[in-house]
Write a structure and sequence with these properties.
Order of helices and strands: HEEHHHEEHEEH
Bound molecules: zinc ion
Oligomer: single chain
Shape: globular
Number of domains: 1
Largest sheet: 2 strands, antiparallel
Radius of gyration: 18 Å
CATH topology: Jann2411-like fold
Low-confidence stretches: none
Length: about 180
């Protein structure tokens, strides 16, 4: 299951076959546009250099956090402080919206646009996973060359790979070869 923050984290695409190449898609205009559209955010494309720098900082925070939590350790003080700082930089606004059936809906959204707001929402999505979902379901693909981040929403919580047909298969083949060697 994709969440806004795992999707953001996965903008750093590693070569799952282990050729050691990684592609940073965060700076790509097509990645930025697709990410904003997918999660309903609004911000200028292309992102400014300082927004990209902040985005890469946040991605580093999220990766460290995901690695810790996926390994069964808690979020450390630095991780908490960084996540809180990204959220504090992007104030939210509550809005009461009347509904057609006579009821009301409470909307909570960024008080301003731009990448600062987007990064705040991404940080908030991560905070929400830790606070309101099951943090023990946060995973990084068990292929050490891949490390794709995802939230395991399978019933038994046994999903270890981003894709069974790619990374799962590759790891199976490697295990088989090791046994034969
Ligand atoms: Zn993978």
């Amino acid at each position: 299951m994709d969440l806004a923050w795992t999707d953001f984290l996965n903008s750093l695409v590693r070569d799952w076959r282990g050729r050691g190449q990684a592609e940073d898609q965060l700076g790509r205009v097509d990645w930025q546009a697709a990410f904003l559209a997918k999660w309903g955010f609004a911000a200028p494309v292309p992102a400014a250099a300082e927004d990209l720098a902040a985005g890469r900082r946040l991605r580093g925070v999220l990766l460290d956090l995901a690695e810790r939590v996926a390994a069964g350790r808690g979020v450390d003080g630095d991780g908490l402080a960084s996540l809180n700082a990204f959220m504090a930089a992007a104030p939210v606004q509550r809005r009461l919206v009347p509904q057609e059936d006579g009821g009301y809906r409470l909307d909570v959204g960024a008080a301003s646009g731009g990448w600062t707001a987007v990064l705040g929402e991404v940080a908030a999505a991560c905070a929400q996973t830790l606070a309101e979902m099951d943090p023990s379901r946060i995973r990084l693909c068990a292929n050490p060359d891949c490390r794709w981040a995802f939230y395991d929403d399978t019933r038994n919580g046994g999903k270890r790979f981003c894709e069974p047909s790619t990374c799962g298969n590759l790891m199976r083949v490697r295990r088989f070869r090791r046994r034969r060697a």
